[in-house]
Amino acid sequence: MVSIKYLRPNEVFDRIKYLVINGIKHKVYDSGGDYPATLIFLHGIPGQISNWKYLVAGLKGRYRLVAYDLRGYGESDKPPKVTLSDYLSDLEVLTKELGIELSKAVLVGHSFGCVVAQEFSVDRDVGGLVLIGPVSKLEPDFIDRIAWTLPAAIWKRVFFTVNPLTRRFYRSLFFSPSTPNEVFEEFLIDNKDYIESLPPHVFRYSRYLVGYEVSRERLGRVRAPTLVIVGEDDKATPPRHAELISKLIPNSRLVKVPKAGHLIIYEKPDVVIKLIDEFVSNEVIKGG
């Protein structure tokens, strides 16, 4: 089992390189190795590689593991605007650059990363999908609207620094009430400096992504075995999103995890690791 305490990202991501993909420098972790499956991790917004530290630590030595900072986030370049097509193209080029056979690739997405994973898989024969806290529809919230219309000096310090307001807001929105506060504090330690350092235009990327909504016709074409995981207490992407996506993807299974919120990959990493390991072993490798 992976300890929930004292695991720092630099203890996990020891094989970092930088690849220029579609003109954008991307920070990439690749564990390497010859394994029957490669897991590719796609973080949410405004996430980064470190969000996957517990899952990568727990799955090392069983599969080839690849994680990267999506364009605009982490240590990857931050262009003026982004589109969903950009993210899909980046993933396609990345798999070719790293020599990953799609039929042996399992895309593991969290939040917005699930949008990239599920849309990428519509017309491509990937080995499998793991969708954690998935999104069925991207809609602007009040913070998006403020960031789109007002100067950054007004909203960045209020909403995107660690202060009493954001502590209460992030704790309530992204974590289960049952989650120990030390888990929330560790998440802040990992992400505080990063979030506070992001340039204002990154927080406006949402204007180029909102309007996305899952399509019965498109997701009905996904052929890969799919595991959908959601925390029962997820407020950011409530279980109804996962339920709909699981219903639309033909070969899918839904697991709701009690006492977990949107950041289940921090709250219940051992549960998620076990679910992924069993799914990849039994439904992707043996079933492939």
Q: What does this molecule look like?
A:
- This protein has 288 residues and is α/β, with parallel strands linked by helices.
- The chain has a single domain (9-139, 212-285), classed as 3-Layer(aba) Sandwich (Rossmann fold), CATH 3.40.50.1820.
- The chain is built from twelve helices and eight strands.
- It has helices at 9-12, 53-59, 84-97, 112-120, 142-149, 152-159, 164-174, 181-197, 216-219, 239-248, 264-267, 269-285, and strands spanning 16-21, 24-30, 38-42, 64-68, 105-110, 128-132, 226-231, 252-257.
- An eight-stranded mixed β-sheet has the order 1-2-4-3-5-6-7-8, with helices on both faces.
- Strand 1 (16-21) and strand 2 form a beta hairpin.
- Helix 2 packs across helix 12 and helix 3 (84-97) crosses helix 4.
- It is globular, with a radius of gyration of 18 Å.
- The two termini are 27 Å apart.
- The model has no long low-confidence stretch (mean pLDDT 95).
The number of helical elements comes to: 12
- What letter string, H or E per element, gives the SSE order? HEEEHEHEHEHHHHHEHEHH
Q: Main sheet, how many strands, which sense, barrel?
A: 8 strands, mixed
- Helix vs. strand class: alpha/beta
Report low-confidence residues grouped into runs of 5 or more: none
CATH class term: Alpha Beta
The strand line-up of the biggest sheet is: 1-2-4-3-5-6-7-8
Amino-to-carboxy terminus distance: 27 Å
The CATH fourth-level homologous superfamily: Alpha/Beta hydrolase fold, catalytic domain
Radius of gyration: 18 Å
Number of strands: 8
Count of the separate structural domains = 1
User: Portion of residues in helices?
Assistant: 25-40%
- How much of the residues is beta strand, in percent? 15-25%
